[in-house]
Structures are given as structure tokens and as C-alpha cells.
Amino acid sequence: MIDLTAADRSIIERMLSNRLEIAAGTVFVRGGQPLNQAHVVVQGWAYRFRMFQDGRRQISRLFLPGDFIGFNSALLSLPDQSAAALTDMIVSRFDARVFAEQLRKSPRLWLALLWSYTRDRSIMEERVASIGRRTSYERLAHIIVELYFRLELVGEAEGDEFVLPATQEHLADLLGLTNIHVSRMFRRLRQDGLVAVDGRSITILSREKLMKAADFDPQYLIHGQNISFGQ
Amino acid sequence: MIDLTAADRSIIERMLSNRLEIAAGTVFVRGGQPLNQAHVVVQGWAYRFRMFQDGRRQISRLFLPGDFIGFNSALLSLPDQSAAALTDMIVSRFDARVFAEQLRKSPRLWLALLWSYTRDRSIMEERVASIGRRTSYERLAHIIVELYFRLELVGEAEGDEFVLPATQEHLADLLGLTNIHVSRMFRRLRQDGLVAVDGRSITILSREKLMKAADFDPQYLIHGQNISFGQ
DNA sequence: CGTACTATTGACGCAGATCAAGTTCCGTGG
DNA sequence: CCACGGAACTTGATCTGCGTCAATAGTACG
Questions:
Q1: Whole-prediction pTM value?
Q2: pLDDT (tens digit, 9 = 90+) per residue, B102-139?
Q3: Which DSSP letter does residue A55 get?
Q4: Apex CA A175: angle with CA A171 and CA A179, to 5°?
Q5: Which of A192, A226, B25, B214 lies at a CB distance of 3.0 to 4.6 Å from B141, suitable for a disulfide?
Q6: Contacting residues 130-189/A vs strand C (CB within 7 A)
């Protein structure tokens, strides 16, 4: 984690002061429609997605607590994809231009933003690698480990257990599979003793085996240091 | 395009002054190894990729003239993926920290950098959508249109024709396919009268049909405005 | 010319999609 | 408290897009 000055913290606190509740399922950023406000996730999950003419859907990113949503597209242009709440959420909505100006004045905050970008990009590069070259079994193993690491970092995993609010259809649209096949691969992961599922709760039974099955290299999430906004 | 001041231009010129030639095939950024220098492509193509234990390869991004390579990972951490020259290249190599400091002093340059990020991210989101939900035929149609638009923006397309230095294996590793299947889909695109191929040169015979086949929405490349570094 | 890389074509196999029935688990209202 | 309706999940049967394997040809370069 990067050290922030008192002034930095007060900027962040001001940015986060405008809280907003969003109900699960709500599309709160629409592709193609100007929006000069951006969000930070305080509580709950969201996702960015693209719809095709014929109804196919691809989720390109998941947003967990602490993540920025649409800061630079709010600042610069029209967003080209939509964002929706996966669960009931609490977000902080802020004016992107005002925040950008404040950022420029604080070297550390600016660095923090670049970190956040670097991490987002690494996650997306790894997602491309997953969808492009991993089998469905490996893909599911990989996303479970990734979500576990990301949630742990923001204090939302206990031991080897975490809450996965995404439906199998969400996961399918994120991983480039069908919901049916995700179900089958969950069964295999259970049968192989890698994970246990109880309702929305996932327990990783063998982190080592799961990471090996996914060819998971945690480096893309770590980057030596980390920054998280929120709470 | 964004207007830059004379001071901005001189910063860029200084940044671009250190030219370097890189031979095709050279891996010039290695994942996991610290590198505090970043690059701008002046001439030629490059790609970022990830290798798996068993030899599978996924290319996550292509870099064309004018594109930044690894600025923020150079600034902040270890790169987690490698980058290689696809063709013989000329790049400008610069110190990421020095440039970052200069960036902070120039609001317009800073905005330009954010633009570049937004665009990169949009391209990656669209890549995820491609690999996850488009058929192989649609994927190939899509990348051809994307490359055409990107090259045209930097003056490297003439009419409906452009040079595609990537082998079918590069395309396969970018699109999550095999080289053999890329070859088959090229044949179909030719048979359907959408493109003509002559050596390394691609001619788009019907831009409309090609875009329709790919469900191509140019918005993700445009963002109202654009910025390009280099030449 | 021979070696190595790239592209092409065909035959065949399989991972994951599609189609079709259930089943479980809720929240809601009678 | 039970009945109902709708998500979400599960399982099986079948199909197909793309991968794999194999052979050949074109091209570029030493």
C-alpha cells in the first residue's frame, strides 16, 4: 500500500462523501451516453458489459469494493460499454473533472491512480489470456483464485472462504462460456476436491491445486504494491 | 486531436529523441524483470503476450506506430507480461519517472495520456468481447476492421488497403484460435468477397459488409477525440 | 538448391454449445 | 402456513465449431 498524506486523505474523503445506493440489476452507466461523473464501489459488486445485436452478452470486467468505475471515460469521452450493479450496491459518485484537477496537485494520489490503472489493465490482459487459451475448467479455477485474492486484499475473504454473488450466468458471460457449462465445471471442481460450494459461499479446499489447475501466476495482481480506494 | 502547447511539444520531442532499432522477433520487455524505461512505437509493430507452462501463447495487445508500450508498468512495478517486436521496429525509449514528472506539469499532456489509456482499455474490452462471444469468422473480420481504422488514423492505410505484417499464427494467438483455422476463415472472407489478400497486403472490398459481419461499432476507437504520440 | 518458415487443404476428434427436462430455492401473496 | 411463480441450477442427449494431425506447396534466404 502506498502512503498518503493527510491532504490526500481529505481529498479522498471528500470524493467519497457523496454516497448513493444502487439496486441489483440497475444499469447505471450507459454506453454511448455522456456522463461526466465517475464512481468508486463502496459495497457490492458491479460489471461492465457489451451486448451484441443478437443478444449475446460479454462481461469485460468485474468491479469489487474499492474499484474505480469509469473515471477516465467520464473525464474524456463517451463510455462505449455499459455498467450494471451485480448486487445491491453503495457507490460514491463524484465529478471526474474536479477530481482530476485535485489529482494533478498530489503526486502520491496521482501515482495511486496510475497503479490502479496498471492493475486493471493487467487483470484484463490476464482475462484475455484466460478466454483465449485456457480450457473451461482452467478458466473457472482461475477466476475463483483471482476473485479470492482481490477480495482478500480488501478484507472480504475469511480464511479460504468468500461470498460469490455472481450467478453462473454472470460467470459464463465473463468467461466466454455458457451457464450450463459453468455448472458442469463447478461439479468437476467439487468432485476433484478443489472447492466447496454452499449457496453463495465458496471455500477453496486446496489453494495450491487450484492455482496449479489454472496456471495462476499472482504477479499480475500484485505489482509490488497496491492501492485501494473506498471505505 | 487535442491541441498541445509549444512547451508540450518540446517535452514530447525530447522524449522521442532517443531512438532505437529493434529487430523483428526480439523480446524487448521481459515479464517479471524490472524495467523503468518505457517506449513509444515510431515505426513497425509490436505485441504483448503471455506464455503458459505448456507452450500455449496468448497475445493480449498489438502496438502500432504512435502507441505507448509499458509506460505505467515501467513507472510502478514489474511488468507481468513480455513484449516483442513483430516486425523490425524503431522505438523511442525514455525514462518513465522523468516523463511522469513532466506530465504532471502539463494539464494537456496529462489529458492526452488519459486518452491514450482510455483507448487502450476500450480496445482490450472489445478484444475480450471478441474472443469471448464472436465466432472465428466474426473475430477475423473484426480485427481486420480494427487494424484498418487504427492504421488509417496514423496515416498507414491507403484507401481500403493496408499492410498486415502479422503472420496467421500471430493473429491466431491474438484471437484465441489456431493458425490453421485463421487460414480457413481468411479463405471464407475471400470467397465471400469481403477482403482480398495479396502477400502482406489486405484490401477491404466491402467495408460495410465486413463491419456488419463483425458487429463492428467504431465507437470504442473514436471516443470523440484522439491523441497519438510519435512521428 | 536445401532448409526453414508460412500458408493451405483434408480427415477426424473433442470441448463446449444447444436443446430439453427436471429440481431446488426463494420471495410473495392468499 | 401453504401455494404459487420465477430464478438459478442440474443433468442428459445430441450437435458442431474449432482443434489436432498429417501432408503438401509456396516463398525467402543463405
A1: 0.93
A2: 887 888 888 888 888 889 999 999 999 999 999 999 99
A3: S
A4: 50
A5: B214
A6: 135-137, 176-178, 180-181
